[in-house]
Structures are given as structure tokens and as C-alpha cells.
Specification:
heterodimer, A: TIM Barrel, eleven-stranded mixed beta sheet, 15 helices, 17 strands, disordered C terminus, B: alpha+beta, three-stranded antiparallel beta sheet
């Protein structure tokens, strides 16, 4: 036995793709998707496409019958010269086609680009603060009813600050309910407008299951970075809101945007969260380095600090939320843009992604999709950037060249985060560490 | 007869898959063996069972009767998942 399985491969992929048949005469080398690691003196390998984790040492090369056939069958070893990027693209295309529904499964709605904060890092800075008119709201409802996929419709409320417009969320939610359309919602917010009445609406009227709230470190940093138009104690108000949301059963993802300027205040911020957020059960916390960090020379050093800060989150009584860690299931779609979702801007324009440049507009709620080529551009699985074709982390990433999101050291960053994740996973699976409550399980 | 346009043929390495696009009657993926893959490739264009059998006879070393039975079996499988336009 040369490999001990720690985590099984993705079940859906394993049903579809037969084991790779070992061919005598071929020369096998480690797959580009096989990530080797040594942990507590043992050799492991994780396959980033199939998601199988094994205890084994991969040979530099092998032929059939040399004792490595199980590694060949499991695709940890592949024929020398195999174009694994094309193989991945084919698998991704098939899984996307299979998962594709008739109609739109998810709508990201921006009721307004207005915001009560002026975050110093906001990528929407300088954009005109448009809000949906009643006419656009009504047409958005008609558009959803005409184009939705069967089953539960997902609404993602984004902005600007979407909670500046609770009346629009009321109207869309009520209209879907009156039409008998099952729906659930998520919200991306700064949290500063989440009163008890809003939490009540979220649970009873808007069907909110998840919310992402951004905070920017300890109070002095928060005040400077959020730069609210009216500073009215939002730091403590948002902490109360976190507790209310968690107590109401809404899953909260607390995103703490960080860089060198606010990092020193993070221990104080976590202390404040521990003391002021009474109900913590449904709250996951993660640190998200800002774009300046992620495009700069110091990116990897900063990610090391982020990894090392995980115990701070746990010590404060919260669940560290996975961020840029590998998924243990094959995901055909890595983001909203390649998953058939639609972004509706306040003026009714349709986009694939709220981060995409303005030339990504492909229609509006009145006329539907008027530029099919632009819309489908993001769904193509054969647009891998040239520099990414040999990357082991390709299955963990948006695979299309049009994505505007880039890290300066993406491969090294993903390797760092993945190895940290796998070591924790191995400890949990081999019982060398107590469970920590993380939900990222095999 | 012809393969319905809402069934996509996808080749991965030397295996052929038949993937339905949001199909109401069938929710699965068909993995074809080499015989089925040959027949599915024939069905990308308008054809008949007779023509498929002719094409297979020129490629495979078996009696026409055996090949015709294989073709009919696979066509029936494709009919059962509503993949054929006839």
C-alpha cells in the first residue's frame, strides 16, 4: 500500500471520471494539480482538481508496474506532456453545462450606489451615487419574474449601502412573495443601519440567510477608514448589530479589511468584539488584505501575519472563516460572473460582475440581454490566462482572462494558505488536534 | 433522427460524455463507451439507424445483425432519456 487516503475525491467527479488507466510504456510524472507537503514528518499530497488528499510521497517519475499504479489511477501521476490545463477546462465546461439551469438563478441587485460611509479603499469612489427610481424597481421585478430559473431565486443586495433603501428591498421581496416565487437573500453591508427593526424585516420579509459586514479594525482606525458622513458611534452600534443578527439565526461573515496601517490595532479590535458581541454562534471572522497590499511587494509577508492571527479570532470566541482556502468539493463556477448570475445596477443596467469594467454592460431590465457576446464572455471556460495554464491552483481560481482581480503573488499566496489549511485538516482527520469548529470539512 | 440540440457532446481525454442542458426529463450525464460514442457522433447530423449500422459495419469486425442490435440498443437508451429528435 503506497497511499493512505485522508480525504476522498469529490464524489460528483469520481462518479463521472473513470480512474486513469495506467499504460505500459508511458512515462508518468506528478500532476501539476498535485500539491505535495510534509507535515509532522509524513509525506502527503493533495490533488487540487479531484480534491483527494493522501498520505504518500510522490515519485519524481514512474512507469507502470513500479508500485505507483494507484497514484496513476488517482491522477496524482500523469503521462509526461499531458496538457492538464485543457483537461481541466474540459471538465469545468462539462460540469458547468450540467449545472446550467434554464433561466437566471441569482440576481445581485444594487438599489443604490449611495453610501453613508466613505471608505478610504472603496473601488466605487468617484461614481455617481445613483439610486433606483420606482420605475426601475418595478421593471426589475418584472425582469426577475420573466427570467428567473425554476426553484428558489437568490437575491444578493449590494451597493453602495443597500440598507439605505429598505423600501426597495421591501417592494422586491413583497412582489416575489405575492407572485409565489420562493426566494432567499443575502446582504453586503457596512452594518451601520441594522436596527432591531431591520433585523426583523430581514428574517420575516426579506428572507435573509447570510450577511457580509465589513469593519476596519479597532475604533480609531475604523473611524478614520470608514469616514462616515456623520460619526455617530457606528463602531459600537455595528457590534450590537452583529449580535442581533447572530441571535436571529442569520449567518454573519465579518470581513475585516486590513493593511499595515490598521494591523497593529487588530488585537484590540478582537478584544472589543469578544467583549461587545454577546451572541457569537453564527459569526465567522476573516481578515481581508486591501488591494494595495495584494498588489504590492509585501503581500506574502502580510499573508503570513494573517495566517498567524487565526488564534486571535478563536480566542475572541468566533469561528475563523475560510478565505482563499481550497474547497474540498469541485466547483464548476468560481464567482458570480461565470455562474450565470446577473448584476442589476441602480439604472437598470445588466452586468456579469459588479467589479467588471463598465464595458461589461450587456443589457438592461427593459430590453433584457442585448449583447449576448459580452454576457457569455465570462462564462467561457477556455479563457485561461497564459501565465495560469501551468498553475496548480487553477481549479481554485476564476479561469477566465477577463477577471480584473489579480494578486501580485497569487500562486505563492495560495500555496501558503492551502498548506496551512491542509495541515490543520490533516491534524483534524488524524486526531492529532482537537476539532476547532471550522466547517471546511471533507 | 438527430441528437437534440439541448444535449452537448463533450470529449475529455479519450472518453465521451453527453451532457443535458437544463433538461427537464433527464438529470444526469451519459458516459459513452467507444461504440456509443461512435453512434453519438453519427447523430450530430441527421441520420438513420440503417446509415449508422452501415457506418459501423465498415469500421467494426462483427456481423451486420450483431451491429444492428447494438445500434438499436443504444438508440433506445438515447430515446429513454429523450435525447433524440425523430
Amino acid at each position: 500500500m503506497i497511499m493512505n487516503e485522508i480525504c476522498k475525491p469529490d464524489a460528483a467527479l469520481a462518479r463521472l471520471i473513470l480512474p486513469q488507466k495506467p499504460h505500459p510504456g508511458l512515462f508518468y510524472i506528478p500532476s501539476q494539480f498535485a500539491l505535495p507537503l510534509i507535515h509532522r514528518g509524513k509525506h502527503y499530497a493533495f490533488h487540487l482538481l479531484t480534491k483527494q488528499l493522501i498520505e504518500a510521497e510522490l515519485p519524481l517519475s514512474a512507469r507502470v508496474g513500479e508500485g505507483f499504479d494507484p497514484l496513476i489511477e488517482a491522477m496524482f501521476l500523469v503521462p509526461e506532456g499531458k496538457d492538464e490545463c485543457t483537461y481541466y477546462e474540459s471538465v469545468a465546461k462539462m460540469m458547468r453545462l450540467f449545472g446550467q439551469k434554464k433561466g437566471i438563478p441569482c440576481y445581485t441587485i444594487l438599489p443604490t450606489l449611495g453610501c453613508n460611509a466613505r471608505c478610504i479603499y472603496c473601488y466605487e469612489e468617484g461614481r455617481k451615487q445613483v439610486t433606483m427610481t420606482p420605475e426601475i424597481v418595478e421593471q426589475t421585478i418584472r425582469y426577475i419574474l420573466e427570467t428567473r430559473a425554476e426553484g428558489t431565486v437568490k437575491l444578493k443586495w449590494f451597493g453602495g449601502e443597500p440598507l439605505l433603501c429598505p423600501g426597495i428591498i421591501d417592494r422586491v421581496s413583497d412582489a416575489l412573495r405575492e407572485a409565489g416565487v420562493p426566494f432567499k437573500s443575502s446582504v453586503v453591508s457596512n452594518g451601520s443601519l441594522i436596527t432591531p427593526a431591520i433585523v426583523e424585516k430581514m428574517t420575516t420579509r426579506w428572507n435573509v440567510t447570510n450577511i457580509q459586514i465589513s469593519m476596519d479594525g479597532a475604533e480609531p482606525d475604523y473611524i478614520v477608514r470608514k469616514h462616515y458622513y456623520a460619526d455617530a458611534g457606528q463602531y459600537h452600534f455595528v457590534m450590537d448589530a452583529l449580535s442581533r443578527l447572530s441571535a436571529a439565526g442569520i449567518r454573519v461573515s465579518l470581513r475585516c479589511n486590513v493593511d499595515d496601517g490598521n494591523w497593529d490595532g487588530i488585537p484590540k479590535f478582537m478584544d472589543d468584539l469578544r467583549e461587545n458581541v454577546a451572541h457569537k454562534d453564527n459569526i465567522g471572522v476573516y481578515f481581508s488584505p486591501l488591494m494595495d497590499v495584494r498588489t504590492g511587494d509585501g503581500e506574502l509577508d502580510f499573508w503570513e501575519k494573517v495566517i498567524a492571527a487565526r488564534p486571535l479570532i478563536e480566542a475572541a470566541g468566533f469561528r475563523p472563516r475560510a478565505y482563499n482556502e481550497p474547497s474540498m468539493r469541485f466547483k464548476a463556477n468560481r464567482c458570480m460572473a461565470d455562474g450565470g448570475s446577473i448584476v442589476i445596477e441602480p439604472d437598470g443596467s445588466l452586468y456579469s460582475c459588479e467589479h467588471c469594467p463598465s464595458n461589461g454592460r450587456f443589457g438592461d431590465v427593459f430590453h433584457g440581454v442585448t449583447d449576448e457576446a459580452t454576457k457569455t464572455e465570462f462564462c467561457r471556460s477556455d479563457r485561461t490566462r497564459e501565465k495560469c495554464r501551468k498553475c496548480p491552483f487553477l481549479p481554485e481560481c476564476t479561469s477566465f482572462a477577463s477577471c480584473p482581480w489579480t494578486d501580485a503573488h497569487c500562486r505563492e499566496m495560495r500555496e501558503m494558505l492551502t498548506l496551512d489549511f491542509l495541515k490543520r485538516l490533516i491534524d483534524r482527520k488524524t486526531n492529532t488536534e482537537e476539532p476547532d469548529g471550522d466547517d471546511s470539512v471533507c | 433522427m438527430k441528437l437534440k440540440p439541448d444535449f452537448i457532446v463533450q470529449d475529455i481525454d479519450d472518453t465521451q460524455f453527453l451532457v443535458p442542458l437544463g433538461h427537464e426529463a433527464f438529470n444526469g450525464i451519459v458516459r459513452s463507451n467507444s461504440t456509443a460514442a461512435f453512434i453519438v457522433n453519427c447523430l450530430k447530423e441527421e441520420t438513420t439507424a440503417e446509415a449508422i449500422t452501415d457506418a459501423m459495419c465498415s469500421r467494426y469486425d462483427a456481423t451486420r445483425e450483431t451491429i444492428a442490435a447494438d445500434v438499436e440498443e443504444i438508440l433506445n437508451t438515447l430515446r429513454s432519456i429523450n435525447a433524440l429528435e425523430e
